[in-house]
Amino acid sequence: MKDPDSTLHPLAADLNAKLGPVAEFLSATGKRMYFPYGGILGQGAEAKECALNATIGMAFEDDNTALVMDSFKKAINLDKKAYLYAGSFGLQNLREVWKGLQMQKNPSMAKVQYSLPIVTSALTHGLRVCAELFADPEDELVIPDLSWDNYELIFRDAVGCKIRKFNTFMRTGKFDAESLKTALQSKGDKKVLILNFPNNPTGYTPTEEDAKNIVAAVKTAVRKNKKVVVVLDDAYFGLVYEPGVHKESLFADFCKADDRIIAVKLDGTTKEDYAWGLRIGFASFGGKLFTEPEQFKAIEAKAAGNVRSSISNCSSLGQHIALNAYLDPQYQKQKDKKFAVLKRRYDMVRKIFKEHPEYTKVAFRPMPFNSGYFMCVKPIAVDPEAVRKLLIRKYSTGVIVLSGLVRISFSTVPTGKLRKLFDNLYRAICELQTA
Questions:
Q1: Which of 20, 155, 160, 174 makes a 20 to 30 Å CA pair with 338?
Q2: Alpha-helical regions (H) of 228-280
Q3: What does the DSSP 8-state code read for residue 367?
Q4: E strand or H helix that includes residue 357
């Protein structure tokens, strides 16, 4: 019988061997992936310290600094290194600084071993990297019924993975961990589970009790001999507005949960640091099966190989901007100030609902929300899409319809205009109810 590894590139086979049992979680594409240490990149790395280096496709001035036109340089005041390639792994300093920030924000992560983050072109690209590394057509992506539609576009439509949804909320408003557990135990050996908190579209983060139930549900499923890749979509991390809500990522919990679980943490500057256009994200990998440093280096190389094979490398300019921001002594103070803006808007939404009980009795049912950029409502007895169109046509108000709900981004609406927004929503629904 032909050895299945005989058709692999030797570098891919070597990485699979270094990963050991972790390799069994990879998709066929993931097993074929490698970082091209040889070739142009490898040869360039070997010549890095040479006095005369004619290896890489960039241009330098006579003083060995980047050759950059003033029309570009004047746009932003950064060292000219920002115009050079950042490499497929990302800037080393940025990766190390981000890992340090992760552990500051998530003390539990300091107690587990996990990879150095790989830089991705924001979180969406990180999801695509995960899909290609871990999901085969016969595998299932498990997601809540209230989730971002891009998950299906990436995993089902682009990669060909099956989709299985579970119920997000119980009638009590608690996260439906039992529904999650049932979905994970469906037919099939391997599942890719995405957990997104604060959730898009609902703006929900688990309570401490819910968080424990979620981890327990996954651990119960893997005891049935399932392999589960748990992807933590932490795009809106840190934006929690209520006490009693779980404030850390669940990444560390899954890193130490079971040797049939691989955990992937996706995060970045986009939502968390209010820097949407930089397109800088990170992918970190962990799990009990990672027991040797070379395993982490191998999975980093797989991810970087995926980056290399698709976009070559992420924006060096964006990475340098992010790194400078994180090293700025005013960074946290500025971030806290921006958080306070969103918290005021969240508080205003709560206040509006309290002052206008007719909204939630007559027009719509709010979904549980306590964090993030959004909150959602379910219109009573009318089509959400009809509501959206009427709001645009008659009330000059824009909302999103997602997962059968009306999603409201209070993050984009000035605090003083939120009352008008919800009054318009109420009027539009009532108008459709009586039409």
A1: 174
A2: 251-255, 269-272
A3: P
A4: helix 357-358
Residue ranges of the chain with pLDDT lower than 50? 1-4
**Long-range contacts at 330-338 (CB < 8 A, ≥ 24 apart):** 335/273, 335/274, 338/274
Backbone phi, psi, residue 129, to 5°: -60, -45
pLDDT at 8: 84
8 Å CB contact between 284 and 117: yes
What single-letter DSSP state applies at residue 105?
Answer: H
The single-letter code of the amino acid at 277 is: G
Largest CA distance in the chain: 79
Tell me the residue type at 165. Answer: K
- Pick the closest to residue 146 from 201, 226, 213 (CA basis): 201
- Give me the pLDDT at residue 390, please: 94
Q: Which residue has the tokens 């074929």?
A: 32
pLDDT given at position 67: 66
What's the rounded Cα separation, in Å, for the pair 400 and 408?
7
Q: What is the CATH number of domain 331-433?
A: 3.90.1150.10
DSSP state of 21: G
- Distance from the first to the final alpha carbon of the chain: 70
Pick the CATH number of 4-35+88-327 from 3.40.190.10, 3.40.640.10, 1.20.1260.10, 3.40.50.2300: 3.40.640.10
The reply to whether the predicted model has a pTM over 0.70 is yes
**One-letter amino acid for residue 213 of the chain:** N
Residue 4 contacts by C-beta under 8 Å, 6 or more apart in sequence? none
Give pairs for 422-427: CB < 8 Å, separation 24+.
Answer: 422/349, 422/352, 422/356, 422/359, 424/391, 424/395, 424/397, 425/359, 425/363, 425/364, 425/377, 425/387, 425/391, 425/397, 425/399, 426/356, 426/358, 426/359, 426/362, 426/363, 426/364, 427/395
